[in-house]
Amino acid sequence: MINKEEINGRYLEYVEAVCGCSRLKLSDKGLLLVLLGASEESSFSSKRHAENAPESPATIARSLRRLENNGFLKWSLVKDSRGAKIIGSEIVLVAPEKWVAERSEKNDL
After folding, report:
1. Cβ-proximal residues to 56 (8 Å cutoff; 6+ apart), any chain
2. Cβ(14)–Cβ(93) below 8 Å
3. What would the pLDDT profile of 64-89 be if each residue is shown by its tens digit?
4. Which residues contact 59 (CB under 8 A, 6 or more apart)?
5. What is the distance between the alpha carbons of residues 68 and 74, in angstroms, rounded to a whole number?
6. pLDDT at 106
């Protein structure tokens, strides 16, 4: 599941913040655009997405971690009912705190 509720209606500002972040690789930014374009009901699997890209599942997972570490998303693995097997990911796109603060300052002017 890909939850975009927090950035709903603010995609352009979100993309500008992502593109302006020098701590992210170009591949991280591209992955985030894939997530933005996906339906909220779609499940995300690094392995499945790697089938359509030159990156490995591990590379995609590292990009997700970098995006998470920089405050652009929250990522958690979803396990089956027994908690034994990973069946997908839950991703929540969030507005980074620094970006939110900058937007608030501009709106206060």
Report:
1. 50
2. yes
3. 899 999 989 998 877 888 878 777 77
4. 27, 50
5. 5
6. 62
User: Are the beta carbons of 97 and 8 closer than 8 angstroms?
Assistant: no
Every domain of the chain and the residues it spans? 2-108
Question: Rounded CA gap, 72 and 33, in Å?
Answer: 12
Determine the 3-state secondary structure of 6 from DSSP: helix
Question: 7: number of CA atoms within 13 Å, CB side?
Answer: 28
User: How many whole angstroms from its chain centre is CA 43?
Assistant: 13
Higher per-residue pLDDT: 89 or 56: 56
Cα distance between residue 13 and residue 25, in whole Å: 19
**CATH class entry, domain 2-108:** mainly alpha
9-40 pLDDT per residue, tens? 888 888 888 888 889 999 999 988 888 888 87
